Amino acid sequence: MIQTISDTSSNNLASRNGIHAIEARGVNVYYGDFRAVKDIDLDIERHKITAFIGPSGCGKSTVLRVFNRMNDLIPIARTEGSVQFHGLDIYNPSVDAVEVRRRVGMVFQKPNPFPKSIYDNVAWGAKINGFKGKMDDLVEESLRGAALWDEVKDKLKDSGYSLSGGQQQRLCIARAIAIKPDIILMDEPASALDPIATLRIEELMRELVKDYTIIVVTHNMQQAARVSDYTAFFTVTPDRTGYLEEFGVTKELFTNPRSKITEDYITGRFG
Predict the structure, then answer these.
(1) Which 3 state secondary structure label does DSSP give 91?
(2) 15: which of 22, 31, 79, 200 is 20 to 30 A away, CA to CA?
(3) Sign of the Cα pseudo-torsion (109, 17, 208, 231, in order)
(4) Distance CA 56, CA 115 (A)
């Protein structure tokens, strides 16, 4: 029998997961025989922004994709361990991976609007998930939530490709929130954008966290320091396996890191 996360209530989440949106224990990810990340234990607090930082190849994006089972789409990938979400281990064979991805949305590094109108970009996910309400209202609500409505309200029939890079990324965020996820994963969402568009995305993240839990991968430590409440620092072993070196409140991690490796990274001595 396939369990659906939507069968679990918010009260169940509060009682079984406390303040945590996600509780990961003993997570290992393999690509074939290669262990990409090892022994990840991590609690993600609800309605907070958690940043993942670390050098290239340390497994930040791999761990991010653990939380919505995107690694399952890679034929040679294998995930071990437990990831509790709404009182369920999302890697239990009885849990529907498609339902996980509906509840845990994702925004990618490069804006990837569909070759459709602005309106249809936002409406598409809701349609395939069986949305029964008034679509016009949902599209407007989602575009307002992504701070894009005022810029596009008079050209909803235009292609999503007609927008600037920063606008396209906010359109992708609107598309993600239209299906009413609990968590939004962001994999370097501003790395392809100019400084002004980057600032808009950062401001938007601080607004969205009132309603969503956000996890963001970033190479920009200043960005992590500006926008996140918590920061996880990942690094690598000599055999290139990623692991979690330190996790804590962002201000404390950046001003008083517990680990010498963390201190060396955030002060630019390596990475």
Answers:
(1) coil
(2) 79
(3) negative
(4) 31
179-211 pLDDT, tens digit each: 999 999 999 999 989 999 999 999 999 999 999
How far CA 30 is from CA of 72, 109, 115, in Å, comes to 11, 23, 34
pTM: 0.91
Q: Are 248 and 231 in contact (CB under 8 A)?
A: yes
Structural domain boundaries in the chain: 47-64+97-266
User: For residue 259, what are the CA distances in angstroms to 151, 186, 221, 233, 242?
Assistant: 45, 26, 17, 10, 16
What pLDDT digit, counting tens, does each position of 18-49 carry?
A: 689 999 999 999 999 999 999 999 999 999 99
Tell me the three state secondary structure of residue 225: helix
User: Domain 47-64+97-266 classified CATH 3.40.50.300?
Assistant: yes
Closest CA to 68 of 38, 87, 95: 95
**Amino acid identity, residue 169?**
Q
Residue 105: C-alpha distances to residues 126, 183, 186, 216 (Å): 12, 6, 9, 12
What is the spatial distance between Cα 160 and Cα 80, in angstroms, rounded to a whole number? 38
